[in-house]
Amino acid sequence: MEDQNFNKSELLKKAQANHWKWKSPYSVRVTVDRLLAVVDRYPEVLKYDRIDQQAVAKISGHSILPAETVFFQNSKLVGKLLSTNIMAMEQLPIKTIIWEDESGKVWLKTVDIDYMNEHYNLNGGDGAIQAIYDLLPGWVEEAVQE
Question: H-helix or E-strand containing 85?
């Protein structure tokens, strides 16, 4: 995010107010592509999987609207989070879901970082929660901006 002119404080407030959910003007596939292009600029972020849920549903004979799931995590922050509370591992890697609803709108939702911090009593996870606050909303905002 260093190269973007986003106000981190305002982006965090927006993410929290919307429960870590954003509307995208792009298709599901393009939204995921854009998010991964942003994440790719950070070599410390490991990308684990990109699952086309529409294709998975089709295997069993079901038809759903476009939907994908993406998993990633910052290798520099995992140790801080898990040394604070190993059970926070339930929320890792960060899961991001992107789907098209019945009205044709595309949405992107990430793990609720506030919930993770509170539920696992991380108390900021030795600075990891603040680092996520500083990065994740900006990454998503960049992915969904026109």
Answer: none
